[in-house]
Each structure stands twice: as structure tokens, then as C-alpha cells.
Write a structure and sequence with these properties.
This protein has nine helices and twelve strands. It is an alpha/beta fold.
Length: 320
Amino acid sequence: MKVLNISPLKNEELKKIEEQCPEFDFITMKSKNVTQDIIDSVDIVVGNPDTKLNLKHLKAILLCSAGSDQYIKDNILSSNTILTNASGTYGKAIAEHIIGMILAIDKNFIGYMKNKNHHQWQMIYGGKEIYHNTVLIVGLGDLGYETAKRLKAFDCHIIGVKRRVCDSLKYVDEIVTTNYINEVLPKADFVILTLPQNQSTYHIMNEERLRLMKKDSVLINAGRGSAIDTSALKKVLDDGYFYGVGLDVVEEEPLDKYDTLWDYDNVLMTPHVSGGYEWDSCREYFVNLTIRNLHHLLNNETLENIVDKDTGYREKVILK
């Protein structure tokens, strides 16, 4: 079988995949250089091909992203094409970013950086502790669970929100389904969104739910920008809500330079950088996931991270 590898890995990592999967013929190139003729000549794609190309004949696409929404639209793939995502790849890196945002907000690092720029040795009164506070994680997949695991070291009470009822999980004190989110939002000192993008998560944090949160709570979004209604967020911020907001994602990216969201002193933003292939942990996980899935294909075994084309979620998730 022929494999087109357009994933953003380093040369030594691409070589590792080829060496550990000698039964396959590999073509490695940049995604921007892929043509229809190249797609037509291969059986498998590792990475995210352009959906404008005809992808219907492919045996499998092993996405290098966790999101798969553009590939599950009508007339993109054949029902016989196996689609997998890269869930599990980004959890460690994004969890670190989330905790970094929380600490920067809680310990007033934003204000201290401003003071430093003005050469001011000046105490900023107030702040928050993570210790012994209640953290609500909305979206308890890989990103949410890796975050819970690390926040448990701060002795937090952690509540997880999932689509479906599940067994108890280590590091998570309570688990509720999305139907009960309105009941748990008022309890949280920190609300962390680690959701994928789909119809059920679009504007899940609307104005009503934002106002259910404590006025001095901290809101972090490191999943998809569409989870928060941006207009509603601005209204709530204008009314004095939130000790701080950390956004690695926004609804429209890049955020327009004239957008008023830039102007809130208690909003910390980063340009969708929390997870990605510049991080060693992400590349290492994806390399090994790709090798395992190519072996699964060769042996006619069930692949890992198969995407349910109706929901966009992984079919099976096991958290440890």
C-alpha cells in the first residue's frame, strides 16, 4: 500500500515511521504541494489533506488534528474510508498551557509584566489560589483529563462534564452529563473548556451560562473558540464578571486587530498555540500512534481513534 505523509513532523520522525513500517511505500511532502494526481496514486494519507480534492477512494486518512469536522461533511469521504484523528496527541502540552494561563491570571503576572515595562516595583493587591478550589472541566476527553490530572496536585475539587454517563475516573471527584451543566457552573471557581467543535458544543457558553458563573471566577478556553458566544462574553465582562479569562482560541481566528476583546485588562489571549507540533510530546505521541495504526491496517485490525462520522468524536475512549 502507498502512503502519503503530509504530517508536520521532523525529518527524523518521518524516517522513524518509514523504518518501522517497511511494508508500505511512502511519499513524503508538504500538504500545500499535494495534487489530485498524487492523491489518486495513494491508498492512505497521514495528515490533513485538502478537502477540495477528491478523497473518496482512500482506504484511510490518519488525521494529525483532533478536530475532524470538515472531513465528516457530506460528499467528502467514501463510507469505506476509515477516518482517524489525533486525539491523545495534544493533552499534555495543552494542559500545561491551561495551567500557565491560570497561574498568570491568578498571580497577576499580566499586571506585573506591565509594571516591569514601566520599571515599577509595585505590589498588586489581591489574586487567587488554585489550592482547595473547585474546578469545572467541560469536555472530559484527553485534553480535559490531562488537565484534571495535573490540577489534582493543587488539591482541587474537580468536576467533569461529559456527553454521556461514565464510570468514575481517577483525578475527577464528580462527573455529570451536559444536561446538568447549569447546576454545576455556579459552584466553580475555575471553568475550563476543552471541547471539540460540533453542533452540540456551539455557543455552549451563552450569556445565560456565563452569568451562572461566580463573578470572581476564572474562565479558560483551550478547545474551540465556538464554544463561547463572544458577544455574550463581552456583555458579561462589561458587567464586571470574572477575575480573569484565558483564551487560546476565539470564534474568528485570527482575531481582528480592532476587536474590542483585545481591550479587556482581565483577558489573556494566545493565538491558538497551546497544542501543536512544535511540542516534543505532541510529535512523539503522533509518531507512535501513526506507526500503530499502520500496523493495524496491515493486519486488518481495528484502528485507534476511529472517528464516528455522525458526531465527529472518537468511537472509543479509554482514559487512564
